[in-house]
Amino acid sequence: MAAASHNLNRSTFRLRLPTGLEIAAFCSFIFVVAPLIVVAGSALNADSMTFPPRSLSLKWMVMALTEGSFVNGAMVSLVVALVSASVSTLFALPVALVLRRMSPAVGRVLTLSFMGPLLVPSVIFALALYQVMMYIFGLTNLFVLMIGHIIITMPYPVRTITAVTENLDPALEDAASSIGATPWRTFLSITLPLIKPGVIAGFLFAFITSWNDFSVSIFLTPRELQPLPIKIYEYLLYQYRPIIAAVSTWSVIGSAIIVIAIDRLVGLNVFTGRRA
User: Which domains does the chain have, with CATH numbers?
Assistant: First the structure.
């Protein structure tokens, strides 16, 4: 009995070595997170843009919030992202509802067509978009920049709203219509509350995409109103101080907060086609 108990204790506390799959997953995680750690560590360096930091300081993080050039760029990015995400979500809402009523084969083809900006290399798509905008408008301004951002952000709300409408029971809408509700009243009272998670997730994904976009912005941004990614790029061309790492760190923190909000509100799996 004692020997059996001793063997049981040894098997209980036996050290389990990680499997090859677990090691590969951990290495992938480090590969993704390492650049963010380097940037954040450089932002905390008191003197120069080096990693690991030689001496810790928050002065660059504070300065990044007060530097006029970056503040103006952040305000432009905020306006463009809010407008682009709002308009693309409003456009995606009827698109997703129409796709829901089509046959599965046609719906897949049309959905794939709306995913076009995600399937083409970003630089090639941005160059083609620039040529189209110059042909139509003949110049670049804030309005043209917003149009470009609406086009590249629309796939996200289309995908998330389509994902939640796939599980929407048509009987609920039929029941509302059978008791005299108009189509508009049925949409506001039944359909919209049920698909609200997809709408919110699509808006937030579109906002993050617009806020962080560089490829389209570098072609379409006007000289006098440059978004934050372009400000960062131009700063790196001439200077290399920890303040640029601090600005990038704040941007990453903001994006992370939005992603956490998406996960808390609707779940990140809504973008893969499954509701939380």
Answer: 17-57 (no CATH), 63-272 (1.10.3720.10)
